Amino acid sequence: MEFDAALTPPPAQHHWVLTLICVDGPGIVHAISGAVVQAGGNITESQQFASNDTGRFFMRLQIETQAGREVLEAALAPVVAHYGMNWRLDVVGRPLRTLVLASTAAHCVNDMLFRQRAGLLPVHIPLVLSNHSTLRDLAGFYGVPFEAYPVTDAESKAAFEQRILRAVEEHEIELVVLARYMQILSPELCTALEGRAINIHHSFLPGFKGANPYKQAHARGVKLIGATAHFVTSDLDEGPIIEQNVVRVDHSRSASELVAIGQDEESRTLTQAVKWFAEDRVLLDGARTIIFR
Amino acid sequence: MEFDAALTPPPAQHHWVLTLICVDGPGIVHAISGAVVQAGGNITESQQFASNDTGRFFMRLQIETQAGREVLEAALAPVVAHYGMNWRLDVVGRPLRTLVLASTAAHCVNDMLFRQRAGLLPVHIPLVLSNHSTLRDLAGFYGVPFEAYPVTDAESKAAFEQRILRAVEEHEIELVVLARYMQILSPELCTALEGRAINIHHSFLPGFKGANPYKQAHARGVKLIGATAHFVTSDLDEGPIIEQNVVRVDHSRSASELVAIGQDEESRTLTQAVKWFAEDRVLLDGARTIIFR
Amino acid sequence: MEFDAALTPPPAQHHWVLTLICVDGPGIVHAISGAVVQAGGNITESQQFASNDTGRFFMRLQIETQAGREVLEAALAPVVAHYGMNWRLDVVGRPLRTLVLASTAAHCVNDMLFRQRAGLLPVHIPLVLSNHSTLRDLAGFYGVPFEAYPVTDAESKAAFEQRILRAVEEHEIELVVLARYMQILSPELCTALEGRAINIHHSFLPGFKGANPYKQAHARGVKLIGATAHFVTSDLDEGPIIEQNVVRVDHSRSASELVAIGQDEESRTLTQAVKWFAEDRVLLDGARTIIFR
Amino acid sequence: MEFDAALTPPPAQHHWVLTLICVDGPGIVHAISGAVVQAGGNITESQQFASNDTGRFFMRLQIETQAGREVLEAALAPVVAHYGMNWRLDVVGRPLRTLVLASTAAHCVNDMLFRQRAGLLPVHIPLVLSNHSTLRDLAGFYGVPFEAYPVTDAESKAAFEQRILRAVEEHEIELVVLARYMQILSPELCTALEGRAINIHHSFLPGFKGANPYKQAHARGVKLIGATAHFVTSDLDEGPIIEQNVVRVDHSRSASELVAIGQDEESRTLTQAVKWFAEDRVLLDGARTIIFR
Q: What percent of chain B stands above pLDDT 70?
């Protein structure tokens, strides 16, 4: 694994990832695999799930074919129309345009930037926005533009959110990552970013929502602490969960030691969630996520 | 490990476990170790903890000595008096007299009875009390008396709780284990059993308190489910936590599959907590537990 | 989960599990899913894998259909013939006829028998064979016939192996489980049971093969100990691995304490492997296993 | 946790860590705690272990005292002399002077440098030596001097080892970390660095020693892959183990995917081992380590 993005080969234009969601029913796999055969494709990875909760069918395929996108889309068109499918076709490994929001904590941002450069995380990060300038040099080392604006009142907060929305538009952002960004997003911004913003919360949700979860965890005397990556919704810490991890602690740890211990779980939980999202492995089934690992 | 309790040797009368709790201050270790030396003892295991939260000092020692209990107690007497210690001296490995409360679920009861007989859990279970007769044969196979009384209304519930209290007295019970006993204890009984009753809750507390935690976990879409062994208090599912474990699940699991998957965590979390308690490794520090593993 | 096998409903005759193995190539999924559609079936679970190592394609499907086995087989016949598939069709949840071999250790046998009765493990165990009589009562409690024959020399060992083979024939055994059976099987028996005998080895293979793995683990000072469930082959402890688990230990544990700690991992690793095998989730790809969890 | 080493306060000169090793016998704890009392000290953390394998006694204490080092040493002097103790007294939190050896892989080096700067790892790294220049910029960003010398033959290898030894002397190095340094050290260098050089091996030892462990792991079909941090000895991959971790993988992972997956375990296993060593929590008991976590 060379530590240099320039050495990472561009993703192959003949390896595709297809995700689709529709009402469950018979014949879907046969119809889709027929379209793949018609486009001269070979299925290299396939996962499916039928949800008893919502009656919906979810599928993720990786398809190798020398035919181009147009041929593949043409073959799929009648099938997706017939089943009324919500679908998405992309090149396997294409870096996802990702905006990172940060405050002062470095660990999650460092983990994302390092992995992007090492070729371990299929994202392209054109910008880091922060309400503090703490991480400017870190972003700079990784060659990522960085902008900091203090958020001190309603006005500066609104301006910051406007900057986020402009950045999303300018850079055609596909994913916004709150990498320990310590501001609550307005309901309007949550709505605007619905389904494409991921937050890391420093507890094992639904335990210890809100502020100071490690202090809460210490007070309650839990024996495991955790981290949760979830979609951002206007209902704080209630968005669909993508990934969770825990680590064992004992009585001897102070609340501030829990903070240090928990950082590793936060970083790896967040980058795992981002990786799955960037690989089109995360689908929404109501308030729950389907993860095609 | 022979599967026969009769082969388990009686615990040695010259290996002692000493636990003590007092206000923290200088010189405690020196004073205690001096008493041990005076009694001709050798410290084979030692753990200590000073709580910043409550200012208390906790210690657990294992001491080998050919001197009897009287000599050891005499040596310790001035020290525990001087520091105003709450202390307890017992023989290492002495089986703890344990009352098991059960309903219909077999897994936790089976695990406790099997481990008792295999010599893996230092408890002596003179009686299983249940509000159902489902587990009568299982208890019978392990040679443990079993009594079942239906609990259907306030009167039968009060009678059952009276039976519990009588059993505690008759058998000089040191620990009551709620092994998936599906009744809420009355506040009076909780008070009577304070600090010597352990429950297993089938979620990772503080998440999903109360009824149907697996159904709640499914609805919330968590990626790990868990189990929590905790002391029983009148505040439901809020007692001090002794042990917790989690296991990974994914979107494909129904709520009833979570029930089956979670059983293993429930059993091993409960038996682990009981083992630590029986070995005098669990001390209370306010709402938190000290576990000297 | 009621603790009574009699309450377990018989598996539905309209829910099928289909596994197939063939040389990889295009169109397989389409062809198979076409056969399923033709038989009026709905795919409820599907997993596939193409092995780069051996060029083979592996698939496991669960299919719901009101059509009977004959209709389903007729629809599949041309497809499996065309692709030269190695295939297997069974009813989802049908208990696998399983022979258990034991010695004196109780934990794995207890775990299997308990889970069978609790409806957690889809096996039917018509017989336990042992070279010691230690576990006779345990088997008896679970209503499972038990036979013990001392194995003390080459002659008694050969006789025991003949008894195994006869039992396999008499009971149409589909799986032989070595539940801490402390005898090495002869090469002839290994060959006769190839692909349908599972052993639990009490180490994290390939570390610590052969005798006394916990003693070896203690001497080497490893920080995690483990257990490995694997297919039996004539090459001792070298058969394809089905499942592995580890548990953390520290310097303070003696070799005999490691034995006690490791038992839980042995039990759960073995029963997990047996469960997957009984559910047709374990396929062989050369020296490696495909596990469709 | 501010991302800036300059903000980390210097360690307090009144909080000490004392480790000691001697032949086991009665009265040691009393004697040591007496010396602590004499120096006006308070024991804030204490762990001990008596090894049945070697008959040695190990202890680690943290002691708070306003008395200086001289007073504390004077109080301890008669005790350590009496028991013939191998002992070490240091300031809690003092950064350990650490030399890092690297090749081209960035993940372990990045993790160490990031944690040093974030105040999460009590080391001072005055120099990174590498046989490749790949990581020059990374070291530069963290303000750590970096030297690269190609190692292509016996002569250049000997020169590189001479540079290591000179650096150890110049910087009074206390720990040498092989952070995926892909050269085998000569027996002479191993001897020179005995007990103060830590390597990370990318397998769960003792499985898969030597080259290409992930390729070996893939071929064997293990279900967990791991990493092992161990002391360097002239017997390759056989030095005393300090820490190990594993992560679950399945059949679908190629050998090169195992490489990527394993990196996280390598980094966290190595930094954990270094942290414990820097905090004087790692003691040697023959071929095994005592870890006072």
A: 96
